């Protein structure tokens, strides 16, 4: 049985502050977990929590992963933007074109996200977090489909997307050209085998799919650090 995607983790200079920002934007519950630290718990079908990890490193360059938040109407899009700005977010320019209708913002530590216009067909069946949008190759989309056991819901022109059979956000990869990876990503996934699974067997399976062992210091005790075929870090936890 494939592992569960249990968390999307943010490196943060102020974990509690960034957690409060995202709690306000998403309407999720803030919790202090003895095992995972500062976390947000979903109140919808997202299926994974957000976990905020302390770091002294400052953000340098764009993240290869960001949220696409959906809107039911123009007014709803404007309300999401206004709420994010009130909580400490800001508008940013990443080269979007004037005719594009989505709004590009950053949280107080510069983590990018988009508020998508109403009527976006690709995200029509998704919730408020419509997608985790990633910089990545077609190969890495195939890797994550096999790793999580999620079917491909898009595979065209080297762009790929997967989605859990249980719903929730899509995870998408935009294909080439990719931005140059210059250091550790500030966002990474935490995976965990199912309760009756085996961590080492899962690590071996992921390596057979194309992952590699690494050491990036953020997994924690009892967790195994790996990288996907594009070099993006992720952690494999003990069964839950």
UniProtKB/TrEMBL annotation:
Q: Which residues does the UniProt record annotate as the domain VOC?
A: 4-118
Q: Which InterPro entries match?
A: Glyas_Bleomycin-R_OHBP_Dase, Glyoxalase_6, VOC_core
Entry protein name: VOC domain-containing protein
* Organism of derivation: Acrocarpospora phusangensis
